[in-house]
Write a structure and sequence with these properties.
The protein is α+β, with helices and mostly antiparallel strands and 639 residues long. It is built from 13 helices and 39 strands.
């Protein structure tokens, strides 16, 4: 989601012993092959991509494909215990996801042998393991104050149950804005109890991705809801309450005299169950996301993650973002600067957690991958941190933390903390913003929500003011078209009402691709039309909000060229063993620069066809090609 070089720029994978820099992923992630922890992956599951025209599979809404179609030889199926059905990952018109299937098998002890057998199959393009997505949380009656009439809003028995809403400016906007039911927010989680008194979700908005059954997202029926536990020893139902808790933060019914309040009450909440027998492990997370998006979700809230990368899953999340769906995910609870997927994929808004005093919650991951900070930690007063006062919301279990207090006893509400809880806070904010300003995409949303500097909390009144008062600073009537015969993107727009524009910055899917000077035309080479292109007017003191457009047409040609820009990833390659980066003849450039993912320039040299990169550390790099003072090409490469 960033406009500068960062660790979210990941799209290079190993193939045939050589490294290739690509704009779309096409083979197995090198980083994944170095991971050995068995519990980091879903047992008995692989992503497999077949070559074009070798699988006779008709795309369908059920996405099921008989294993016998993929593997006609019965001995191959029996040898590894392949299950009868595989699951197609096709999405929209995404070419990379065509012919990608999730293959499941019983012979878990023979996983590596199956991987090697599939790699040796000439019909197979790549194989990769399925990362195990896990929840990102910590499992550690006199009412006062003004606001909604919900029983648990404010302070109950001197316990602050809505401090997280105080942090983001709920009181300033309460009564002025409300969620719109046309905005759909999918909570993809372990399970969601749709019949909770403060949720009341329609059955058409519930889905069990494990069983493939619509109409239900409840925890397993054998989990007792009414088992009393404590903060030190919570019941099984508390673990299965994670998704229900997140759903309440997103859109609990407000001003109904019971339960809790939410910022975006009134939006349509969708609940998606993706855990099987273990409440912590989201074995069907990607299937849940696909169902949600294909059934109209405008926002997908994902309070889970894995430290392991997957090219298939990156492509799924990218396809969703490029369709305009706002994807929001937890940054992770490892308490360090570390990538967490899907939050660290491009196009996904990564959310870190703060305590009530604005300090980073000790468990929250941090660093350049984190886009937005929101309440998700603990209540702090003076020098005291109250570890039993966290984010209070709806649950499947009866209260575990305060079951001994009359006001809470026997009620289905409780405390939880984690970047898991910060994520639905941001999803609720995004849902309210879409209710007031429909049509914004995820790239615009992160631009609105990201703080000006540091780890400061998102503040909703400022977000709404930025949208409502900055109209005169934005470009108008942005149009774009793409000429398929030569892959040329042409854009044009009208100047903002506000004078004083210094230059126009051009973006594609949140990443800067060029500058148009003071003119209102731009031309570039793009490989395809996936996603959005945008223009931001830059002023002497500040810059405006980026205006995006899908691809359309106009009649007058618009041939003025301000920048000739090429995405040259498909043309650059690296010989890892020789430590040489090759640039093909014919690319028009006179200078090349190579940057590490943290923005350091590691190599700068004149234009040539090969460069010695043997002295550079292993990792991902961003390359830029220049013709004079004009940036004419970019690429990503792994050394």
């Amino acid at each position: 989601m960033r406009n500068s070089v960062c660790r979210k720029c990941r799209s290079v994978y190993v193939a045939s012993g050589m490294f290739f820099a690509l704009l779309m992923p096409v083979s197995v992630s090198q980083a994944q092959e170095m991971i050995s922890e068995e519990d980091a992956y879903v047992p008995g599951a692989l992503y497999v991509k077949f070559a074009d025209n070798v699988v006779n599979y008709a795309k369908s809404a059920r996405r099921e494909c008989s294993t016998s179609v993929l593997f006609p030889v019965k001995a191959d199926v029996a040898q590894y215990g392949l299950k009868p059905m595989a699951y197609s990952k096709h999405m929209f018109d995404n070419e990379f996801l065509d012919n990608v299937f999730r293959l499941e098998f019983d012979s878990v002890s023979r996983t590596e042998a199956l991987i090697q057998a599939l790699k040796a199959d000439p019909r197979v393009v790549f194989v990769e393991r399925v990362p195990m997505q896990q929840l990102r949380w910590t499992a550690p009656a006199v009412k006062s104050g003004d606001g909604p009439d919900d029983y648990f809003f404010g302070n109950i028995d001197n316990i602050p149950t809505s401090w997280h809403w105080d942090m983001i400016g709920f009181d300033e906007i309460y009564g002025y804005y409300q969620g719109d039911e046309s905005v759909k927010v999918a909570v993809v989680d372990n399970a969601v109890w749709g019949d909770h008194e403060d949720l009341q979700l329609e059955s058409s908005n519930l889905y069990d991705a494990v069983m493939g059954i619509p109409g239900d997202a409840n925890p397993p029926s054998y989990v007792s809801q009414d088992q009393q536990g404590s903060a030190m020893a919570t019941s099984a139902a508390y673990g299965w309450s994670h998704g229900t808790h997140c759903a309440g933060v997103v859109g609990a019914l407000t001003d109904n005299g019971i339960g809790v309040a939410s910022l975006a009450s009134g939006v349509t909440v969708m609940g998606v169950k993706t855990a099987d027998d273990n409440a912590q492990d989201m074995v069907r997370a990607v299937q849940g996301v696909i169902w949600a998006v294909e059934n109209g979700a405008d926002i997908v809230s994902m309070s889970y993650g894995s430290s392991n990368y997957s090219s298939v899953e990156e492509a799924v999340y990218a396809a969703c973002s490029e369709k305009g769906v706002v994807m929001i995910a937890a940054a992770g609870n490892d308490g360090k600067e570390q990538s967490n997927y899907p939050a660290s994929y491009p196009g996904v808004i990564s959310v870190g957690a703060l305590n009530s005093d604005g300090s980073r919650a000790s468990f929250s991951n941090y660093g350049p991958d984190v886009d937005v900070w929101a309440p998700g930690g603990y209540f702090v007063q003076g020098d005291s941190l109250f570890a039993d006062v966290m984010i209070f919301s709806t649950t499947y279990c009866i209260s575990q933390y305060y079951g001994d207090k009359e006001a809470f006893s026997g009620k289905y509400y409780d405390m939880m903390a984690g970047t898991s809880m910060a994520t639905p806070v941001v999803s609720s904010i995004a849902a309210l913003v879409l209710s007031v300003h429909p049509g914004l995409n995820g790239y615009q949303m992160v631009e609105l929500l990201r703080p000006a500097s540091g780890q400061s909390c998102v503040y909703v009144p400022d977000v709404l003011r930025k949208l409502e008062t900055g109209e005169a600073l934005r470009v108008r009537n942005l149009q774009a078209r793409w000429k398929e015969e030569d892959s040329i993107l042409e854009m044009r727009w009208d100047e903002p009402e506000q004078a004083g524009v210094v230059r126009y910055s051009v973006y594609r899917n949140g990443e800067w691709i060029g500058t148009a000077g003071s003119a209102t035309r731009f031309k570039a080479v793009l490989a395809d039309t996936a996603g959005f292109v945008g223009i931001r007017a830059v002023y002497e003191e500040d810059s405006s909000f980026t205006v995006y457009a899908k691809f359309s047409t106009w009649d007058d040609g618009g041939d003025e060229t301000q920048v000739e820009f090429r995405e040259v990833g498909r043309e650059i390659r690296v010989d890892g063993s020789a430590g040489v980066l090759y640039v093909p003849d014919g690319l028009p450039f006179d200078r090349m620069e190579l940057f590490s993912v943290d923005g350091r320039c590691c190599l700068a040299d004149k234009g040539r066809t090969q460069y010695d990169v043997s002295s550079l550390p292993h990792g991902m790099y961003i390359g830029r090609l220049w013709q004079g003072n004009v940036l004419c090409g970019v690429f990503k490469v792994v050394l």
